[in-house]
């Protein structure tokens, strides 16, 4: 239903060319997109380096940066989106924002607070199957908990794809899965 305001969060690799390319794809579809840099200019070549930096900065500080990035726009009704670590961040913000219009998760999820509730928030998750960071047991439990919050959840699984399979700069990249993901995700945004 018209263009969305999307807040797109990067993965543990930082704000890489792939994230800018994803934002460009969303903009080409007519959406407003913002890509906050929670790592303040740092990008990494390996998950391990990114995780070490994340731990150094601390979860609370990263979340604070994310909240500050989103706050000026939240009145407009944001769609929160992100890749891997960024998806976990997007989920946390969306569940805490009564005006959120949607939640689009690529390759990641997060814990859900016991008391979290939303009003039929549309949620879409795209995940590799199997995914080393998102086990089947975890995803089943996550799905049930998300439904309990009142979210309207769809999960798309991509057999044989790598964890961050939408990133063309990584070994994980799977072109067919990535194209399918974008097709479905853009369709999802068009319904919000």
TrEMBL record:
One Pfam family cited in the UniProt record for this chain: DLH
Taxonomic superkingdom: Bacteria
Alphabetical list of InterPro entries matching this protein: AB_hydrolase_fold, Dienelactn_hydro, Dienelactone_hydrolase-like
Residue ranges annotated for the Dienelactone hydrolase domain, each copy included: 6-191
Record keywords: Hydrolase
GO MF entry, a single one: hydrolase activity
Gene3D superfamilies, per database record: alpha/beta hydrolase
Name the UniProt record assigns to this protein: Dienelactone hydrolase family protein
Protein's organism: Streptomyces pakalii
């Amino acid at each position: 239903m018209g263009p969305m305001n999307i807040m797109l969060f990067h993965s543990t690799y930082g704000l890489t060319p792939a994230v800018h390319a994803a934002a460009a794809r969303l903009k080409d579809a007519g959406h407003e997109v913002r890509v906050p840099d929670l790592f303040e200019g740092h990008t990494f070549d390996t998950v391990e380096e990114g995780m070490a930096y994340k731990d150094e900065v601390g979860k609370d500080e990263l979340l604070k940066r994310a909240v500050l990035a989103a706050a000026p726009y939240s009145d407009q009704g944001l769609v929160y989106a992100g890749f891997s670590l960024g998806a976990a961040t997007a989920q946390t913000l969306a569940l805490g924002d009564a005006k959120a219009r949607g939640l689009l998760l690529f390759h990641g999820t997060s814990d859900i607070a016991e008391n979290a509730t939303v009003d039929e928030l549309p949620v879409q998750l795209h995940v590799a199957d199997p995914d080393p960071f998102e086990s089947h047991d975890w995803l089943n439990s996550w799905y049930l908990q998300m439904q309990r919050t009142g979210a309207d959840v769809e999960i798309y699984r991509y057999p044989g794809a790598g964890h961050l399979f939408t990133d063309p700069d990584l070994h994980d990249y799977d072109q067919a899965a990535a194209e399918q993901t974008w097709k479905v995700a853009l369709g999802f945004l068009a319904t919000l």
